[in-house]
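Q: Hi! Curious about what LysR family transcriptional regulator looks like structurally. Here's the sequence.
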Amino acid sequence: MTGKLSLQRVQAFVAISDHRGISAAARALGVAQSTVSSHLQQLEGEVGAVLVDRSAPSLRLTEAGEKLLEYGRSLLALADETLDQVARVRRAPVAGVLAIGGTTTATERLLPRLLRSFLDRYPDVELELHVANSSLITQKVLSGELPLALVAAQSEQPSLNATAAGCEEQVVIVAGDHPLAGQQVEPRLLRGTRMLLREEGSTTRQYQVDMAQRWGIPRTQASTIASTSAIVAAVAQGLGLACLPRAVAEEALLLGRVAEVHLDPAPPARPIQLIRLAARPLALVEELFIESVREERTS
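A: Let's find out. The predicted structure is below.
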């Protein structure tokens, strides 16, 4: 053991763990696979321990690897914080990487608008955007893999801070040529309708299920489609009914491919929040983005 620890090699090791393999880590870091392999071998030499169980069929860290991952994340976070604090005192344009996650529906319209406003103000900032359903995105924030995320759900985790970012208006849509298109509809008239739902782990699905129970449409069937745009396309083909954010369905509504139906109660708008770990210090670009979101919210 040499007594030295390379942050670059630690970063490669953390990427191997986060992306579940050397090839994926290399793609994420934008370097050759051989470079990541070399970093791993050299890091194992630096710490004097095997970090990855190479006999396992899939990536598995050794006990030493798990411990280094825990401290490695802290080291990388401290290095980022150090550079961030230096950036705050030197008189230079705001730069760095804004890493942020977003749920599928939140990235349809609101997040791009917020990012456009922010990047217009700070053009030297680079963007790293991750899109997944609420469960996966929230888990990435909780694990420290992502510093910020925009989710269409109320935060129920005590370890998270949430900033109100906006709302999603919801609509109930059917095929454009549906005989009840555009009408106020009693649930009994939709008897046997197929309801198209998002996948498990999506807060959109839970919202859809809750609304279906409130409407009480008799003898409904449920089908799962893991994409809001695919649900819109399925509705347009007459495969069923869906409750989705208006922003997702807006183009299809304008083209007449789908149409609204009005049920009682009308689906309420869903709040969108920007979440982060409460205990994690904010980098300058993250702090400025949160300020920008608050300004947009009140403007």
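A: A fun detail: Residues 170-268 form a domain with the D-Maltodextrin-Binding Protein; domain 2 fold (CATH 3.40.190.10).
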